Amino acid sequence: MRPTIKNSLTKVLPRRQFRMSAVFWFSAIGLGVAGIGLLLAPSMGDFSMISISHLTDEDDHLRDSNISRPNESSSSTENCIRLSPHGHGHAQFRIIIMQKHGGQQLIDQIVHYLQALTYDEIVVVAHGEGNTPLTVMLIQEYVSKGVHLWRCDGDFFTRGDQWSQVIQQYQNTSDYVQGLDVDEYLTILTPNKTSLVWNRLSLHTALKNLPPSSGKPYKTLMSTVLPVDCPKTQLSRNAPLSSLTKHQARHCRITGLTEGGLSCFNKVFFRGEDFVKTDNGNHHGTTKLGGSNRRICEEKGVEAAYVPTNFVLVHLQVLDFQDWFVHAVKVATDLGVNSFDKSSVCPAGQNKPWNPCPRFKRFFAANFSAYELRSMYFKEACVKKPFYDMDGITTMSC
Question: 230 falls in which pLDDT band (50, 70, 90)?
Fold first, then answer.
C-alpha cells in the first residue's frame, strides 16, 4: 500500500536504532571533546545559544506568499513521502537538499540560499533517519513559510534513487534543478574570475547567460574552504575577525576559499525538462540524451559530456578539526568500514589513502590520540591556499 502524506512534522520522527560500534564511537567523541578543545583554537559555538528568529529575517522580496498548488505533484513516491502540506509554484532554480541529522548546519545552509532563492525554491529531503527532534524543531518555521520537506527511506547507497524520485516531482515546474548535500553552497563566479557572489540578480544573470540547451547536464566548479583553526591561517581581505570568536552561520566563518577546479566528478545541475535521474553524489546524472556521462567525460573530456558554467559550488565540509574528525567517523560508519579489527581489509574501491576506510584505520592505529589526530588534520586539511574574494556571499546574511 502506498504511504500517505503526513500533515504533522511531529508525528514522523523515526525510531533511531544504533549499532554497538556507533554507541562506542559517539561515547568516545563525548569523552574526547574536552581534551581536543584544549589543543585547538575555538571553533563551532554552542547551538543552544542560537535563536531561530535572527536566522529568518530575510529581505521582503524573498517572502513568497502566493504559491500555487499544481495538480501534477503527488504526495508520495515509491520510497519518499512529502511531509510539508503545501503545494509548489513555478521556480527559476530549485534546489533539493539531501541531509541526515542536519540540525543547525541545515539552517545555516538555508540562510545562505535564501539570499537568492524563495522559500518555494528550496526542498529538503530527510534521508533515512534524518528527522531528529532538533532538525524538525529548527526547520518548522521555514516549512511554514514555503520550504518543502520530504522523508526518503533507504540506505546510503540508494541516495541517487531518492534524489531522483523527489526531483521528478518538481522538474515540470522548475526551469533548473540541482541536488545538493547539506555542506554544499552554490555561488556565482564574477567576470573578473576572482570574486564570488550569491544573490537573486547574480543568479538570474548567470542563468540567462547559459548556452542554449543541448540536453547535457551543467557542470559546476568546485571550491573548498580553508579551515579556521589551521596554523598561520590567512584571513581573506575583509573577513570579520568576529568569525573566529563566536558562532555565526557556517558560511560567515569562512576565512578563505580555494580556486574552483573543474573535473568529471564535480556536481551537476539540470534543466527541469531534461532531467531523468541522478547518482548517489549528483556528480553525473542522466538526461533525455541518455548514455553514460561519466564514461564520456573520462574518455573525451568534461565538455563532451557536460556544459561548463561559472557556478562555483563551495564545499563547506571541513571548517575546523571537529568537522574533519566527525565527518570521517560518520562516513566510515555509513559505509560500514568503521572496524576495530586490526586484521580487517578495506574493500575494493575503498583502499585509497583518502577513502574513509584507510582513514579510519589510521585513527585506530593512532589509538585515537588527540595529538596524533591533530597532526593528521594539519597535514590533510591545512595545505590549501586562499584565492577568492568572498564578500559577495556574506554581505546579505552575515
Answer: confident
Which residue's entry shows cell 574552483? 260
Beta strand extents in the chain (DSSP E only): 80-82, 91-99, 122-127, 148-152, 174-181, 184-189, 195-197, 218-224, 268-271, 275-277, 286-287, 307-315, 389-390
Pairing of strands 91-99, 174-181: parallel
Domains annotated on the chain, with CATH: 47-320+384-393 (3.90.550)
| Interatomic CA distance for residues 110 and 128, integer angstroms | 20
Per-residue confidence band for 133, with pLDDT thresholds at 50, 70 and 90: confident
> What residue spans of 58-180 are helical by DSSP H?
103-113, 133-144, 159-170
How far is it, in rounded angstroms, from Cα 206 to Cα 175? Answer: 13
Q: Provide φ and ψ at 351, rounded to 5°.
A: -120, 10
H or E element at residue 30: helix 20-39
Exposure string of 206-240, with b = 16+ CB inside 10 Å and e = fewer, is bbeeeeeeeebbbbbbbbbbbbbbbeebebbeebb
Q: In angstroms, what CA-CA distances link 266 with 15, 52, 73, 261, 308?
A: 35, 33, 30, 8, 10
pTM of structure: 0.73
pLDDT bucket at 161, cuts 50 / 70 / 90 = very high
CA atoms of 3 and 152, how far apart (whole Å): 11
